Amino acid sequence: MKGGIRYHPQVDPDEVNALAQLMTWKTAIVNLPYGGAKGGIGCDPNKLSASELERLTRVFTQKIHDLIGAHVDVPAPDMGTNPQTMAWILDEYSKFHGYSPAVVTGKPVDLGGSVGREAATGRGVVYATEALLKDFGKHIADQTFVIQGFGNVGSWTARLLCEKGGKVLVVSDATGAVQNPCGIDVPGLIRHHQNTGGVKGFSGCIDTDPNSVLSEPCDVLIPAAIGGVLTRENAHDVRAKFVVEAANHPTDPDADEILAKRNIIVLPDVYANAGGVTVSYFEWVQNIQGFMWEKHKVSTTLETYMTNAYKDLKEVCKSKNCSYRMGAFCLGIDRVARATVLRGWGA
User: Fold this and answer.
1) Which PANTHER family match (predicted)?
2) Residue 226 CA to chain centroid, in angstroms?
3) Neighbouring-strand partners of residue 147
4) Which residue ranges make up the annotated binding site for substrate?
5) How far apart are CA 233 and CA 183, in angstroms?
6) Among 133, 142, 150, 179, which residue's beta carbon has the most beta carbons within 10 A?
7) Cα–Cα distance between 130 and 139 in angstroms, integer?
8) CA torsion 296→300→305→307, rounded to 10°?
9) How far apart are CA 8 and CA 195, in angstroms?
10) How confident is the model at residue 347 (pLDDT cuts 50, 70, 90)?
11) CA-CA distances (angstroms) from residue 258 to 127, 263, 296?
12) Residues within the annotated binding site?
């Protein structure tokens, strides 16, 4: 099984079960040999010192060490956790079971983490976007983009789109939003973000209202921040031709229905942001083999997985005459169901 461990005040068993189920379908859609898992601790990591976080993580690992393992359940970082958290889990687990780098993914590269893991989700979003646009006879270099969120996923997505010739018009984060009709200088914005902690005030752009980002005119809208941002209230205002969900669950069911009626294509999160778990799979494979890959191999193999998954998804959508979201769930659930029947578990 595969899934993240999150540290967040609102962690509860129902949420963890729901997220684990989503991971089951996500790994099936991109054809990874995993079921879904999830875990978490109800705490606010921002209020804990590094020492407290380490002690918390080590005690948690002592309680679950016989439930996780390289061929059982492989955790990864999620909300509120990071490569350092994975390093502590690896070290604590190894006290019980011997050195086992494949027990977690998203580790620091110095401890057997994969190169390219940091950029993986954003890179996967770009490959998914590329496959979608190609299907409609378009290319990234001809399109304009608006990105909500400039954390790990949003910033890598913006950087890679820019490298492929795409024009990023608007970017927002928690501090505000910036806009340039001629295209934002993304490398410069990344440096500004590193220096100031936000996108607001970046020279060469004008500050704009972060609440209007989702309704800015563009070819491709990429929500890459929090969930539930596209709702019944604002779905009528979206002026993009495509929505690519880099965040988890950014579109609620009412908004989904409205966007479909307006013929706006939505590429769902359960496929679009699967680059992270896919490169986690590559890390696990490298750890088991004891043979690490170069960055180029990680990137090209990720592109192969995302492109093949898009082709499979498109086939399902054609055969069932359904939306990308419905097609993605049909694809994932059907693969799990077929495996279940083949193992003799079918009713």
Assistant:
1) GLUTAMATE DEHYDROGENASE, NAD-SPECIFIC GLUTAMATE DEHYDROGENASE
2) 11
3) 171, 222
4) 2, 26, 280
5) 28
6) 150
7) 7
8) 150
9) 26
10) low
11) 26, 9, 40
12) 2, 26, 121, 152, 280
